[in-house]
Design a protein that fits this description.
Layout (H helix, E strand, L loop, with lengths): L3 E5 L2 E2 L2 E2 L1 H12 L4 E8 L3 H9 L6 E6 L8 H15 L3 E5 L2 H14 L3 E5 L1 E4 L2 E6 L4 E6 L6 E5 L14 E4 L30 E5 L10 H10 L2 E4 L1 H5 L20 E5 L5 H7 L4 E6 L6 H4 L2 E4 L2 H12 L1
Parallel strand pairs: 1-4, 1-6, 4-5, 5-12, 6-11, 7-11, 13-14, 13-15, 15-16, 16-17
Antiparallel strand pairs: 2-3, 8-9, 9-10
Helix pairs in contact: 3-4, 5-9
């Protein structure tokens, strides 16, 4: 049986997000006959498509340029994706399990009347996958019908980004589809930072309730800047008002897979551990020697973060 996969490109401010390359890495495990990418954007769609075309494994990148895509909403994009899937005869439609994909892919599945698998972390067969359950403490193997289009989201933390160097074909795509008008873009509020993106950074430094206050969190920021790391936080730190909620790492925050994860003053609640289980090396610093974080840490240090961080800063120069 032949398989043909369509990847929905995740992009922001005219640039392709790494989550797209990670989703393509998952698609490669299915061993399809072709992997295509669909870019839905405004006038910058062609430039984003050129980025996608360089990712290994991609056969063709289609781009649909439309002013309605300038501030995309799931209600606007989903009908057009469904039309592209039906026109192209795809067997699978994959998107990243990011905020973008979580909002969009279920709508696509509903419009296609298709089954959906969320948060794929491993591929067994083209219709059998592993996904995490119980905050990542167990893995569930699920099977989808083989005779229907399958819509799925990919757990990006479980896959490295597919390599570059490809020269896939790029083609414009006309999608003359009526979209609902009851949903419209009003405005966007988001945090901006010069630090690396939390979800894709190779190094992440996080702080928890043990940091003590919003003012004290400066020591976390300064150390992260010293080593070129992104900054995250536990839910306890977010709920306490130390940092904004877009910095939360964990089951109800961001799922990350950095090469190095250093956490200060984080006890290691199960919800937080679910967000860092795919990290390469986990370094934990906490005053409580019985903190659960030490059970999963590769390197653990019992001590006061306000004494240890200055020592670390001196050590890195």
């Amino acid at each position: 049986m032949s398989y043909k996969i369509l990847i929905i490109a995740d992009h922001l401010q005219g640039a392709l997000n790494e989550s797209t390359a990670r989703t393509i890495a998952c698609a490669q495990q299915i061993a399809p006959d072709a992997i295509d990418v669909l870019v839905l954007a405004d006038d910058g769609a062609a430039a984003i498509a050129a980025e996608a075309a360089r990712i290994d494994g991609v056969a063709t990148v289609y781009h649909a340029d439309d002013a309605a895509h300038a501030h995309p909403t799931a209600a606007v994009l989903a009908p057009r994706i469904a039309a592209a899937v039906e026109r192209g005869g795809y067997s699978h439609v994959l998107g990243p399990n990011t905020t973008f994909g979580k909002d969009l892919m279920p709508r696509v599945a509903a419009l296609l009347g298709a089954p959906m698998v969320t948060d794929i972390m491993a591929v067994h067969t083209p219709h059998e996958f592993d996904r995490p359950i119980y905050a990542g403490n167990a893995v569930n193997t699920v099977a989808a019908p083989a005779d229907r289009v399958l819509v799925a989201s990919v757990r990006c933390a479980s896959y490295p980004a597919a390599a570059g160097g490809n020269e896939a074909a790029i083609e414009p795509l006309e999608l003359d589809v009526e979209v609902p008008s009851h949903t419209r873009f009003v405005g966007l509020e988001q945090q901006t930072s010069d630090r690396p993106d939390l979800q894709t950074a190779p190094k992440v430094v996080s702080g928890g309730r043990g940091v003590g206050s919003e003012e004290n969190f400066r020591i976390i920021y300064n150390f992260a800047d010293k080593i070129g790391a992104a900054v995250g936080a536990s839910r306890a730190a977010v709920d306490a008002g130390y940092v904004p909620n877009d910095m939360q790492v964990g089951q109800t925050g961001k799922i990350i897979s950095p090469t190095l994860y250093i956490c200060f003053g984080i006890s290691g609640a199960i919800q937080h551990l679910a967000g860092i289980k795919d990290a390469g090396t986990i370094v934990a610093i906490n005053k409580d020697e019985d903190a659960p974080i030490f059970e999963i840490a590769d390197i653990g240090l019992v001590g006061d973060l306000f004494d240890i961080i200055p020592e670390l800063e001196r050590a890195v120069g």
